[in-house]
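Researcher: We're teaching a course module on how sequence relates to structure. For the next exercise, students receive a sequence and then see the predicted structure as C-alpha cells, so they can try to spot secondary structure elements on their own. Here is the exercise chain.
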Amino acid sequence: MEVINVQVDIPGNAPVLVLREVAGAGRLVPIFIGHAEASAITFGLEGVVTPRPLTHDLFCEAIDHLGATLTSVEITKVDGGTFYAEMVLKVAETESRLSARPSDAVALALRVHCPIWADDSVVETAGLLPDEDSEDSDDGGDVVEEFRAFIDNVNPEDFAS
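Model: And here is the predicted structure for the students to work with:
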C-alpha cells in the first residue's frame, strides 16, 4: 500500500487517510483518523522535522534506542468500520507484532520508510476502485464520499464468515 494523502471529510470535518493498493487494481482504502494522527502523517509525508520530537518521532527514537527495527506495518482487519493494524518489529533475529491503530502505525512507517501492507480481506471489504474519469482519481478525491456511504450502510453481518 502507498499513502496517497490525508483529506478532510467536509460534512464532519473528519480527517481521512487514503491508501492505495500498489499491486492489483489500485483500489483506494480510506480510513477515518484523528486530527493529531492526520498531522503526524502529513508531517511524515512531507518530511517535516520539528525542533523537539513529537509523539511518533519519540516512539521511533525509542524503537531505535532499544535496538529494534520497525520492518513493516500491516492493516490486518476491518470490523464494523474500525480498522486494525500491527507493527512488525525485529530485535536481532526475533520478530514481534504490536497491535496498533492504523493511523499511528502509518505515521511511524512514514518516518522509518518501511512498507505498509493490507490484508486482502481489508482491501476486499473497504477498497474502492478509483473513478478513472475523475480529476481527483490520483489523490483519492471522491473516495471519502464513497467511504462515508459504505460506513453508513455497513452491517456487522457483512463481515461474518
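Model: If you want an answer key for the exercise: The first helix runs from residue 35 to 46. The two ends are 25 Å apart (CA to CA).
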